[in-house]
What we know:
The strands form six sheets. Strands 22-23-1-24 form a four-stranded mixed β-sheet. The protein is elongated. The chain has 429 residues and is α/β, with parallel strands linked by helices. The longest helix is centred in the middle third of the chain and has 14 residues, at 243-256. It has 14 helices and 24 strands.
Amino acid sequence: MDRIRIRGGNALNGTIPISGAKNAALPLMIASLLTDDTLTLENVPHLADVEQLIRILGNHGVDYTVSGKRLATQPASGRTIHFTARTIVDTTAPYELVSKMRASFWVIGPLLARCHKARVSLPGGCAIGTRPVDLFIDGLRALGAEIDIDAGYIVAEAKGGLVGNRYTFPKVSVGATHVMLMAASLARGETVIENAAREPEIVDLARCLNAMGARIEGAGTSTITIQGVEALSGARHRVLPDRIETGTYAMAVAMTGGDVTLEGTRTDLLQTALTALGDAGAEITDTPNGMRVYRNGNGIRPVDVVTDPFPGFPTDLQAQFMALMTRADGVAHITETIFENRFMHVQELARLGAKISLSGQMARVEGVPRLVGAPVMATDLRASVSLVIAGLVAEGETVVNRVYHLDRGFERLEEKLGACGAEIERISG
Ligand code: UD1
């Protein structure tokens, strides 16, 4: 199993290209199930989760080609992939596939909308707490689906097709909002979704669906209105930049000091997180094609954050921000409100010398003057990258084990950081 070895102490200076967003690419790829025409996605990141979803979609009958060249010979970033679901050959998503990636559960929306039935495995346990699917079930029932749970599978049927309705989510869910957008696009009549997620990835999916002929208004606000259409066509769509990757590198620069341009991204995608970073002492400015992040000389100030649905502070940057706060001049409180049990990085950061105590959903982080490298391991994607950030300033050598978590969500991480002066390498095997 690959590992990442880091020798801490170098400031980051240079340019880092930001990839297409994983969390936008996944629902966009799933949207290809809605049409028998070709959906072309540009700027698709080269990530393990994307490859896994390609395999899962193939199981339902989606063919894909990568523009020009074969997959293995493509440059690592910014691929253009054409997805065609001419015929849906299987409306079952088996446990072996869904359990590997939770987002693949979202195929339930387009399968129901297009084939009027779907049999999708419950996603099963997840390292960051129980992640139920009740909101998906309630929402799809509101559109007229009959849903049973049978032997670990959700069996859904909508004889005669889905029918538009008004539905208010009792809790904000990104995934359930994606699924409702896809399902309602092919339902009869009007659907109004209240308390919808407002994440930029929702806006990106809505833009793509509209390019395919859907009639969606209000994406990016809490009320989304969808006029169902009979069929959707193909389209060409560019995946928006990854705001979590952007925020992660911005936090890495705030941690090490230095001056880095993050290219191909946008500050408006992560305003709250950038405000917190600014409060912590980093300077952030817009550039024509992205943003510049720098911190020279001054220490890191402690800043309290509370995770919240967009436009709040993203839970997907919580671990990285905590890593930064381990070196602050004082005490910071970090509260996680989205997922229970998303503090697995705490113990590992402690192995590097961080002083963190937990009380329920709040972590109290007391900044320390130095971290010291050690072997560490993480059980999820964002936690792993927080250990990399800590390793960049830890004295001596930090080895991050279980790198496959990083490969799920960060494209060429060691190359991107290495190009800016970090001493970081992948050890194979
Ligand atoms: C998506 C992101 C993930 C991010 C999360 C929150 C993708 C592929 N993943 O995950 O990186 O951390 O949004 O921003 O885009 N919930 C229920 N019932 C449900 C569905 C969700 O109670 O039926 C709960 C979850 O357990 C969680 C909260 O709602 O506590 C938010 O989850 P949700 O927004 O659905 O996260 P995902 O879409 O899975």
